[in-house]
């Protein structure tokens, strides 16, 4: 079976300086790929390259990104807009910063949906309410009438997840989706993303430095350091039998409680 997404020999530069060098990977239907590494390793740059949002300073200088047989690197900005949202959803690292502070959550969700399909405000609220309720926000009508500053960090992150999956994308890009949350909410968000993977049958690229999150969620793992691939493959052998010293260091950094047996 052909992969849903296939990245070949990606090299990305900012102002001529390489941030990612010759990185390749693929994501199958329904699969979760975890991309891990320390800050500055190129994790988020890869997501921006997939979305075609590298900015003026960024440039894909080598490689191709294939999605359902189409080379995303050859598409125009107008063509890429057709993919962002309906085909490829994105959960940002800090969803609150990605939301407009002077518009209600409901208005922003309605606007996002209207950009891609004909839908009434009532229908957009109904669909948003179904998702918000499934991910733990049972008072969803109050949420939709609220502004981002009226919600907690965890609530805004759930709103970001809701917006990303509203149109049931085939691929979900999650950029450090739990980094701004406390431990309890991190666990809840991880469980919600897994539930949505099951509910929407979406594949996912999970970018994180949290190895515990990767252990819980990922099917395959790509380890990056200084923009280069250090290890790539099935989660079990990458995390439990790493061949690269850097991967072993990352696994040693995972905090685990040890209970003394009396």
UniProtKB/TrEMBL annotation:
<dbReference type="InterPro" id="IPR003593">
    <property type="entry name" value="AAA+_ATPase"/>
</dbReference>
<comment type="similarity">
    <text>Belongs to the ABC transporter superfamily.</text>
</comment>
<dbReference type="GO" id="GO:0005524">
    <property type="term" value="F:ATP binding"/>
</dbReference>
<keyword id="KW-0472">Membrane</keyword>
<keyword id="KW-0067">ATP-binding</keyword>
<feature type="domain" description="ABC transporter">
    <location>
        <begin position="5"/>
        <end position="251"/>
    </location>
</feature>
<dbReference type="GO" id="GO:0005886">
    <property type="term" value="C:plasma membrane"/>
</dbReference>
<keyword id="KW-1003">Cell membrane</keyword>
<dbReference type="Pfam" id="PF00005">
    <property type="entry name" value="ABC_tran"/>
</dbReference>
<dbReference type="GO" id="GO:0016887">
    <property type="term" value="F:ATP hydrolysis activity"/>
</dbReference>
<dbReference type="InterPro" id="IPR050388">
    <property type="entry name" value="ABC_Ni/Peptide_Import"/>
</dbReference>
<keyword id="KW-0547">Nucleotide-binding</keyword>
<dbReference type="InterPro" id="IPR003439">
    <property type="entry name" value="ABC_transporter-like_ATP-bd"/>
</dbReference>
<dbReference type="InterPro" id="IPR027417">
    <property type="entry name" value="P-loop_NTPase"/>
</dbReference>
<keyword id="KW-0813">Transport</keyword>
<protein>
    <submittedName>
        <fullName>ABC transporter ATP-binding protein</fullName>
    </submittedName>
</protein>
